[in-house]
Amino acid sequence: MIGGLFIYNHKGEVLISRVYRDDIGRNAVDAFRVNVIHARQQVRSPVTNIARTSFFHVKRSNIWLAAVTKQNVNAAMVFEFLYKMCDVMTAYFGKISEENIKNNFVLIYELLDEILDFGYPQNSETGALKTFITQTGIKSQSKEEQSQITSQVTGQIGWRREGIKYRRNELFLDVLESVNLLMSPQGQVLSAHVSGRVVMKSYLSGMPECKFGMNDKIVIDKQGKGGATEEAAGKSDLGGSGGGGGKQSIAIDDCTFHQCVRLSKFDAERSISFIPPDGECELMRYRTTKDIILPFRVIPLVREVGRTKLEVKVVIKSNFKPSLLAQKIEVRIPTPLNTSGVQVICMKGKAKYKASENAIVWKIKRMAGMKESQISAEIELLPTNDKKKWARPPISMNFEVPFAPSGLKVRYLKVFEPKLNYSDHDVIKWVRYIGRSGIYETRC
Amino acid sequence: MPAVSKGDGMRGLAVFISDIRNCKSKEAEIKRINKELANIRSKFKGDKALDGYSKKKYVCKLLFIFLLGHDIDFGHMEAVNLLSSNKYTEKQIGYLFISVLVNSNSELIRLINNAIKNDLSSRNPTFMCLALHCIANVGSREMAEAFAGEIPRILVAGDTMDSVKQSAALCLLRLYKASPDLVLMGEWTSRVVHLLNDQHMGVVTAAISLITCLSSKNPDEFKTCVSLAVSRLSRIVSSASTDLQDYTYYFVPAPWLSCKLLRLLQCYPPPEDGAVKGRLVECLETILNKAQEPPKSKKVQHSNAKNAILFEAISLIIHYDSEPNLLVRACNQLGQFLQHRETNLRYLALESMCTLASSEFSHEAVKTHIETVINALKTERDVSVRQRAADLLYAMCDRSNAKQIVAEMLSYLETADYSIREEMVLKVAILAEKYAVDYSWYVDTILNLIRIAGDYVSEEVWYRVIQIVINRDDVQGYAAKTVFEALQAPACHENMVKVGGYILGEFGNLIAGDPRSSPLVQFNLLHSKFHLCSVPTRALLLSAYIKFINLFPETKATIQEVLRSDSQIRNSDVELQQRAVEYLKLSSIASTDVLATVLEEMPPFPERESSILAKLKKKKGPGAVSVELEDGKERGELNGGGDRGGDAAIAASNASTPSPSADLLGLRSAAPVSGATPSAGSLLVDVFSEAGPAATSAGVNDDGFLRFVCKNNGVLFENQLLQIGIKSEYRQNLGRMYLFYGNKTSVQFVSFNTTVSYEIKSRILNVQTKTVEPLVEGGAQVQQVINIECLTDFIDAPLLNIKFRYGGALQNISLKLPVTINKFFQPTEMAAADFFQRWKQLSQPQQEAQKIFKASHGMDTEVLKAKLLGLGTALLENVDPNPENYVCAGVIQTKAQQVGCLLRLEPNAQAQMYRLTLRSSKDTVSQRVCDLLAEQF
């Protein structure tokens, strides 16, 4: 289990140090600083083993969070915990920065006491935590309230307290996806996958029972066989709009759920039913690899003219419905290390050579579907006495599109609250799809 | 030299550096550097000419970026351009960049060398200095090749400025150290030596470093420097402190120069010329006198400088070791320092005294300080000083004070630091042995040693006690009594149990008369320790028990009972179990006569170098060597009369005493051949052939060696544990040999160690080995590369010694490495006429070697041809008029010379005989090749 947890600033100074077990000594703090933060070469592995002690670290802007253990722990669990911890801190005091951590260090220690006990992760649900760890000073609570907190935290539904009441029952559903791609210069897909999350923000009264439906291939196929009785539910599609194709169902490779989802029911009939926590939560995460709609195609053309000149031409094509608009498009074309000058011509957007990053960055604010645009650049090179050839790193791209590249569609989200008298129809529901680029690269 | 003026400061550089310093994170720093690099690249693009200032600035920035740890792959050209500038600062930056960043890039090196040449030939002293510094800083072989001829000329030229001379001397020193073969002083030698007379002290100081280095390599050429150095030294020593102006340091005239002069003199023996010697002695006396004068300043620098000269003078006195008067004075001076309040001085005094103690003239003088040194050992706060004190005590010990010193060291041992305990133990053991007049004292001392510092007593120490006790009849009874008493302590160290078990097992009968130490009491005492001991000790105790059965038949029943108990006879350790079973059977089956023969008292051990001393030497390196010579003298009397047991006796004892002896014999450096037939009767052979651990291997094996005369690859050695394969290749006078050590067992070999030894190593062959991993896993193979350079012709092959532990038993294998003179043959093709002309030229009797011998293999033509080719010579067809005969020619390549060699082999098929004739320009070569080859057919 986790033996200790340290937070460092970018200089390697320790901001927070919490040791849970005796096998982690004081020198562990320094070991990580010396071997990872101040290492001669940049350490790229998130897990580092120093003297039979394992350090798991994540970095948030300039802040390093490191969990330390001497035991053979489940590394995925540790990272899950670290991410959760980042979420909790963000929920309490906003951005994770050196200043914020210094200002809230008492709170952080309090949180660490709560979410990690002798190195074992505990309840880290922000909503639940906020009921008893507050930033507003000590509030003398009545006995009743205290016992209610206890029963809620230790009870069956630890993530939602009773007696929530809203005048307007509202519900927001975001499907957030990031699409990853590696493509050969000839346009062959070398690897591609989409990792997505369904984030839900709910303002519902009482203890509502919800049921979520999407175009999961297994469910659709089963229903197709079962008959048309459920077809009506399929029609009550909440209004998602597909990007590229008339794909009916998608194959999900793997998925994980928020703790509120009843897994037994999912395993048995693949239906997703749950009582949501109040406010925001990540309902599920999933990954797909088949039939991905690639929103953009990058066609590179690199020509070396002698030893001192390089000509680059890059065409991007958008590959989705013309009615949709992609945003925040950025193409990053790496330049050789001995570049001495660059001339760029582009038809659309703005392009600039950024010497500090060794790349030409081409930005386009908006671009509709089924369009294409191109950039051409002349790169002057300085002859060097180094015989090393330029490695030609891939061209990468960033963008945001208003559809789910995996093809996922929300079919329904039904709400039942038997005790209070509001029905599914009274709930106002919103659905949004956002597809972003992950690592979206084309070799050149 | 012109300093960088304010106006010349580079603002852009300062801004860049402060930007880097202000970066919040590494990423930000890399971004800033990338940006700057792009900027510099665009500036260096070549289409616009840059002025010297900006070139300098950008080169400087590149240098800074490089020093931050980033790769720089451009800008070299610009830096080289800076070299040709006329401004000092620009030139300086150029040279700086070159000396930091240049690699052996062919085209640039040419340009750089050109620029350096220009600067060297310029009249501007600062430019010359810059160029010289650059050469010294780079110091590569290319630089040495280009300038090694030029620099001595600058050094001795009459019109060179003094500062340039200094730089030139130091630059030459650097080049000489890097590639000594390229710096040939030859004609310059005498003029360089005369630099010692130079007016300018700085030049002398620089030159003397060079001369010291050169003369340590070839002392004869620079002999003349001695008298010059002496006169220079005497001029400095006798000068008033104000005479030398700039070179007087806190009232001490030219301390650095004096130290270096004294150090130079230490490269040579005392001068033979009486006048020079007198002058030198005078100087040394003056230095010693000056040490007595009251200090002229209270500053620490003053005393430091004075003491530095003094200590250097004392080492010179010790080095000469011929002036009793001076040695005693030096000793007294050091004696004063022993009580100085400066710790460093005390340390140095102890250290120098250590060397003084080994000189016969000053040994007595050193001894007078014994009380102070003992006091230092006890009270000194710094462990390194205590260590020196212990060393000095060891060095000053002789017969008269041995008891006192050993007693002091023993009492100190109880509180000594852990880091020096083991060494102290070894020293006490050696001193006790060396100066033992009566052996009861020796036994007492060592037992005390084991009692006080048991953990630090290595195996060798207690082996040695046993060897001595066994070899000395007069001490055995006393030893038995003492160990018996020592064992009565409730807690005693395992080493004590080992010594006790061994000695009581051998000589328990000598004290059995006393009812307090009756046989049964002895046995019970030993057995009470049994269960607290490790397996090897238990095995030793079991052997002691069986010896008890022989010594005291009345204990037989008790001991058999013990041996029969499950904890022995079914012990999970194989060794213990086997011993228990065998001893039990032996005691019940064998008659008393047989038992008495088998379990006879151990014969005396053969004399050899004390294993403890060897261990100390290994631990300490050269420090202990001085004692070794004396030790050789003392040892004879110590053990009273050399080789008592002949080789046969040892072989017999090896086979006829139970395994505990193997513990002792195992440390023998060359174990006797275990194959010798045991003399003790064949019924015992069965018992012991399976008893001991795997036998240590035979001595040097010769036939593997001969197989390799005509081939280069194959299996050199093989037994049930180890296989050694060999692969070798030779080119001219160089050879490379790959040895493959294969572990044939499934158990790993530990402490695997190989050494190649060659009697007169350095002169004839140059053998370099790479060390192998000390661990060889079961079934694994390790490789070792040996590089061989043949310096001149030779006869004896180098010996390869392999040591390793297999399941606890030390294995020791010695092999001749198949390196023979014929490996360095270079085949030579020649025509018949040519051959016979040469053959006739080599007609002197000593140039020819001939052998007539019987064929030991078949006389197959193809086989013979293959063997002759394998020899390395060229087989010449159609040369000899008789087609049956074989004729070969080759040149043996050694570093010293090349030896042409002609060979003629005449087979006689009827008689199955050969006649082999060898002719070469060197008689030893003919003989050797002839001998080697005769074994092959």
Automatic annotation (TrEMBL), chain A:
A 1,2-diacyl-sn-glycero-3-phospho-(1D-myo-inositol-3,4,5-trisphosphate) binds at residues 350, 352, 354, 363, 365. Coiled coil: none annotated. GO terms for molecular function: lipid binding. GO terms for cellular component: clathrin adaptor complex; clathrin-coated pit; plasma membrane. It is found in: Cell membrane; Membrane, Coated pit. PANTHER family: AP COMPLEX SUBUNIT MU. This is AP-2 complex subunit mu isoform X2. It comes from Salmo salar (Atlantic salmon). The gene is LOC106580654.
UniProtKB/TrEMBL annotation, chain B:
It is a peripheral membrane protein. Residues 706-818 form the Clathrin adaptor alpha/beta/gamma-adaptin appendage Ig-like subdomain domain. It comes from the Eukaryota. The keyword Protein transport applies. GO terms for biological process: clathrin-dependent endocytosis; intracellular protein transport. The keyword Repeat does not apply. Residues 624-655 are annotated as: Disordered. It is found in: Cell membrane; Membrane, Coated pit. GO terms for molecular function: clathrin adaptor activity. SUPFAM superfamilies: ARM repeat, Clathrin adaptor appendage domain, Subdomain of clathrin and coatomer appendage domain. A 1,2-diacyl-sn-glycero-3-phospho-(1D-myo-inositol-3,4,5-trisphosphate) binds at residues 11-12, 43, 53, 57-61. Keywords: Cell membrane, Coated pit, Endocytosis, Membrane, Protein transport, Transport. GO terms for cellular component: AP-2 adaptor complex. Belongs to the adaptor complexes large subunit family. Component of the adaptor protein complex 2 (AP-2). Adaptor protein complexes function in protein transport via transport vesicles in different membrane traffic pathways. Adaptor protein complexes are vesicle coat components and appear to be involved in cargo selection and vesicle formation. AP-2 is involved in clathrin-dependent endocytosis in which cargo proteins are incorporated into vesicles surrounded by clathrin (clathrin-coated vesicles, CCVs) which are destined for fusion with the early endosome. Adaptor protein complex 2 (AP-2) is a heterotetramer composed of two large adaptins (alpha-type subunit AP2A1 or AP2A2 and beta-type subunit AP2B1), a medium adaptin (mu-type subunit AP2M1) and a small adaptin (sigma-type subunit AP2S1). This is AP-2 complex subunit alpha. It comes from Hucho hucho (huchen).
